[in-house]
Amino acid sequence: MGSSGESPPPSPAVTDLELQFLLEAVYRVSGFDFREYAPATLKRRVAERVRAEGAVTITGLLERVLHEAPAMARFVEALTHNAGSPFREPGFFAAFRERILPRLRTFPHVRIWVIGSGEDAYSLAILLREAELYHRVRIYATDASDAAVERGKTGSFAAELLDEYAGRYAEAGGTKHFSDYVELHDGRATFRPGLREQIVFAQHNLACDGSFNEFHLVVARNVLTHFSQSLSYRAHQVIFESLIRLGYLGLSAKETLRVAPHARAYEALDGAEGFYRRMR
User: Fold this and answer.
1) Considering the domain boundaries, does residue 4 fall inside one?
2) For the segment 23-43, what is each residue's pLDDT rounded down to a tens digit?
3) What 3-state class would DSSP assign to 91?
4) Number of structural domains found in the chain
């Protein structure tokens, strides 16, 4: 009988076992724990890394990430990356400007924690500056990987996207021109240095790290959707511990507090898309 020369794909049981070995090895070597990420997200992103690294199987990818530091760094970045862009979901930022900003103004100093999105940090900084409140605010923008933190510090995007982002900014209620906040160079747009004055970029992994301060506002959009239910529960606990009483939590429009351990301690703000207030 002839042979095509190609090995049959591994069975689902073998693939699942390979995935367990990979995640355990990554945890032991790098300290990043992806074992409780949502299975669908894991399988999709690991399959993408298998192809990107030129491996044939997950075991092939495992060998590469264990023996090549750059491959490990790329793997961690791929699994922790939270795709974002300035003023994504403009309704969220319109609600922030109209409903949350006036309440933050009542505090002498405001601390904001933005999880997993440097773009959200810059967007909030713009609205705070236009409200003449930015000088009283410190924004902590954290991400799980060093690569994502460095990318956030850069604050750069393709110049061809400027018009799209300007449209979102206008929808969010921006009062100036979005182009006023960026500099153009070699086909890239970069947020002006003044916007970074009150932003602290740092590495923090919500999946395993704890609370590090108390905040008046925590923004965690499209981050917990990648977690399993148990890991999401733990992450919500960290967020709850990080919020002052009567502080605010901002999520994406598609997220809820159903699996939050203190769901009853929050109230949804009427007319404020994705925002909740911690009542007790």
Assistant:
1) no
2) 999 999 988 888 888 888 889
3) helix
4) 2
